[in-house]
Specification:
32 helices, alpha+beta, 6-stranded antiparallel β-sheet
């Protein structure tokens, strides 16, 4: 995605024009323009020069945004988010008001309430007219930007809000100039009645007031828009400017931009950590609330990771830099929030369709209004006043800002609480979730299991079982494996050297130990290597019923025993599940554990349904099939969750999880707390509600305001609206929309008192329905006969050929019996199996 800064945009019609012009280029896949940040994001292969040329041809300016980022995470957004408009508008407003006050004193105060005037004006109507002309001209020069932008847009056949203002002010001024010249002729002819008539036809004050009031609205809008980006600005301010690094044994303070990966740096109590790193010396409590929203400090010791912008509270830390510049967690958060604000929510398409035709439509209504009032016999001045009122009251900006300001504030609220929405679409979709599919390990549970019992089979010593288990599991990264490793290390067990180590995702692992094939894993996997007797199965069932996971170990075809491991659920998991259910969301737990263990954990957490014995690719299949019942959110933290996170309508990654899971997700939770899932849904629902309120106000304002300005109600109620009041209404409309969006900052994201369930109830037990339709398939075993295998090498060759088939989990060949036991995770045709066996050079003789 390429990002550009766009200049010259003043309203949503401008944004729509730029978006349309760039989207029409060959090679542009998508284009999103943000009026809020004056930025444009373009995806596709179109050359940069062509994109900039298209923007300039549309009447605006564009330049590529630089990709350089500092170590603290400060990016080009520093300049993009800096409020440069408000000071300029403020100067224009002050100058305009200085000239408007005497103008209104003369035109309104004297004419309507007989305020005293200097002698040279009081007795000279022509002097009054010239005085008003000069002051109005000065105000128009001060606010020339409206005329330049408005008429430029008109010349490019892309009229915008400034066009409406420019035409209205110009028409008022020119007609007033005409009235002034006509009055001059009346003065020469001493026609006092004509003089007074033309005096009442002056609209100089209307032109000046229109421009000044619109400028007031622009300033309020600019200040409010600045507040919508407070969250990102706050994150940027957290980035430290310097770091104390150790070079040649000496502590040296350097700009944070000069810190490189691998550098050693020190952090004293009370200082901010400059970059992401790993603690190599020291112990301290670190406040990570800036990134996670969690106020409780986290203890850090040697080997623990630290993040940029967090605060060292107590001890002295020496760390090694691991991620600097744009790679730090802080920089990625800023990038994520900024990118989300630059994208467009699906709900914004309604406003986009209207904005594209709004200004020409309003100009047409103004023309019709003028013609109709002239036809019914009203004066030229009256008819013109009604047309000008229509032009200045219409506001496409409120319509265009309705969605992006709410998205920006919603993203900011999420960022403050450690909840990151990657795109505007993900912020919108999260609130529509009906089913939450949650991974067990590391999400519902702590992900730090412990060994509860070591059960050795007859003829095997527990120490021998633990030694073999340690030798196998030490090479695995699975949480259950780490529990076994911790147990063995605590017991002082020494690991043996293994060969040909192989990890079988979702099943277990195998390797050769002193020439003997060893395996570890679940029951179905271990059955392919050794016989499991009744006493072991009974013991395993007992452990599973207690919520523990039994791990089986075999060596050389002999079952050595089982080691039971348990992972306790997080303190807040049950509460989080309860909150999701209160929202009307069906909670389904997915796990690779056996059914008994999964049910025990599921019951403790309070989930609605449990799917056990799920392989990594099986999670994606379950999510896909659950989608037939409603919008599905997948919540997980591991590498094996990535396919399911991608498949789900909304993928939510626990922030403490793997980078792959985070990359695959739509929403990232910086804390490892399921309560943030409910909080993310609340933020999404509140933002959607706010967007609907903004769109309603924007449409309602124009639907009510335009007929009133046109004089539709004059024959019925006598209601009229002067151009000045129309301008005031227009100036406040955008301000009201932005102010309403800022109310999102008051959203109490962890308060579930106002949670309401989704309206559409889901039918019965989802998985029961799924199973009836044969959707969720369990792992299956099949045994085939293969002739021609003469030795273990032939077995290995056959095994390798079969395990290349999609859906084959494992294959165990035996040349002495001419059989191969195949374990599958999905349906596989016999033709594919036959082709694989014959391709390996052996004879396929069918399924037993």
């Amino acid at each position: 995605m390429e990002r550009y800064t766009v200049t010259g945009m003043t309203c949503d019609a401008c944004r729509a024009r730029v978006e349309k012009a760039v989207s029409a280029l060959p090679g542009v896949e998508s284009c999103s323009v943000s009026l809020l940040t004056n930025s444009m994001s373009v995806e596709g292969s179109a050359p940069q020069a062509e994109i900039i040329g298209a923007v300039e041809k549309a009447g605006y300016g564009a330049m590529p945004k630089t990709s350089e980022k500092t170590a603290g995470g400060r990016t080009e957004y520093d300049d993009a988010l800096k409020d440069t408009e408000t000071p300029k508008i403020k100067k224009r407003l002050i100058a305009s008001v200085m000239f408007l006050i005497p103008l209104m004193y003369v035109s309104m105060g004297h004419m309507m309430w007989n305020f005293p005037l200097p002698e040279f004006l009081a007795s000279n109507h022509l002097a009054i007219g010239i005085f008003e002309l000069l002051l109005t001209g000065l105000i128009m020069v001060i606010n020339q930007r409206f005329f330049i932008s408005g008429f430029k847009g008109l010349l490019h056949k892309a009229p915008n809000m400034d066009t409406l203002v420019a035409i209205g002010a110009t028409a008022s001024f020119l007609y007033s100039v005409y009235a002034l010249f006509a009055m001059s002729a009346a003065v020469l002819n001493a026609d006092n009645d004509a003089v007074m008539h033309y005096m009442n036809e002056f609209y100089f004050e209307s032109a000046a007031m229109i421009l000044t009031l619109i400028t007031v609205g622009k300033m309020l809008e600019a200040k409010s828009k600045g507040r919508t980006t407070d969250a990102i600005k706050g994150l940027m301010k957290l980035a430290p400017k310097t770091a104390v690094v150790i070079r040649n044994g000496i502590e040296t303070e350097v700009p944070v931009e000069q810190v490189k990966t691998g550098d050693r740096f020190v952090v004293k109590p009370g200082e901010n950590i400059p970059v992401d790193g790993v603690v190599v010396k020291g112990f301290s409590a670190v406040n990570e609330s800036a990134l996670t929203g969690e106020s409780i400090p986290v203890d850090k010791k040697e080997g623990d990771t630290v993040s940029a912008a967090t605060v060292n509270l107590s001890g002295f830390l020496e760390c090694r830099a691991t991620r600097v510049g744009e790679d730090t967690t802080l920089a990625q958060i800023i990038q994520m929030v900024s990118d989300a604000s630059a994208t467009k929510a699906p709900i914004a398409k309604i406003a986009d369709r209207v904005s594209g035709i709004f200004v020409p439509f309003v100009m047409g209504i103004a023309a019709v209004t003028f013609i109709v009032w002239m036809i019914v016999g009203e004066s030229f001045g009256f008819s013109l006043s009604r047309a000008i009122s229509v032009l200045v009251i219409s506001c496409p900006c409120a319509l265009g800002l309705a969605t992006p300001v709410a998205i920006m504030v919603g993203n900011g609220v999420g960022a403050k609480n450690g909840i990151m929405f990657k795109t505007a679409a993900s912020l919108e979709e999260t609130g529509k979730v009906q089913i939450a599919a949650i991974d067990k390990t590391g999400t519902i549970t702590k992900g730090e299991p412990e060994v509860k019992e070591v059960f050795a089979c007859e003829g095997t010593e527990p120490s021998e079982l633990l030694r073999v288990a340690y030798s196998l599991e030490i090479k695995s990264e699975h949480p259950l494996a780490r529990a076994v490793v911790r147990k063995a290390e605590k017991e002082g067990v020494e690991a043996l050297e293994t060969e040909q180590f192989e990890n079988i995702p979702g099943n277990g692992l195998k390797a050769y130990l002193d020439g003997a094939e060893c395996a570890a894993g679940n029951l179905s996997f271990i059955k392919g290597f050794a016989q499991v007797d009744g006493s072991v199965s009974k013991k395993a069932a007992q452990q599973a019923a207690m919520g523990r996971t039994p791990l089986y170990f075999q060596r050389g075809g002999k079952l050595l025993g089982i080691i039971s491991v348990a992972d306790t659920i997080k303190e807040d998991s049950a509460k989080a599940v309860s909150e999701l259910k209160k929202m009307g969301i069906r909670v389904v737990m997915l796990t690779g554990d056996n059914a008994e263990t999964a049910k025990a954990v599921g019951a403790e957490a309070g989930v609605d349904e449990v799917v056990a014995d799920v392989l990594p690719d099986g999670k994606e299949a379950v999510v896909r099939q659950l989608q037939q019942f409603g919008k599905v959110a997948m919540i997980g933290d591991g590498i094996n969750d990535a396919p399911a996170l991608t498949r789900a309508d909304t993928g939510i990654a626990i922030g403490a999880g793997t980078d792959i899971a985070i990359d695959a997700a739509d929403v990232v939770l910086m804390k490892s707390s399921l309560l943030d899932v409910a909080a993310a849904i609340r933020i999404s629902r509140a933002t959607l509600r706010n967007i609907r309120e903004n769109l309603f106000w924007a449409f309602f304002y124009n639907v009510i305001g335009i007929p009133l300005a046109a004089g539709v109600w004059i024959p019925v109620f006598g209601w009229t609206l002067s151009p000045m009041f129309g301008a005031a209404a227009m100036s406040l409309s955008s301000f009201c929309v932005i102010t309403n969006a800022l109310r999102l900052n008051l959203c109490r994201v962890y308060d579930g008192k106002k949670d309401k369930p989704v309206k559409e109830a889901l039918p019965g037990k989802l998985l029961e329905i799924s199973n009836e339709n044969n959707i969720i398939k369990e792992k299956k075993e099949m045994e085939i006969t293969v002739k021609g295998m003469m030795c273990p090498h032939c077995e290995a060759h056959t095994k390798e050929a079969l395990e290349k088939l999609d859906g084959v989990v494992s294959a165990k060949a035996d040349h002495t019996t001419n059989t191969v036991v195949i374990e599958t995770s999905k349906e596989i045709t016999e033709a594919d199996i036959k082709a694989a066996v014959e391709g390996a050079g052996y004879e396929y003789c069918g399924v037993k």
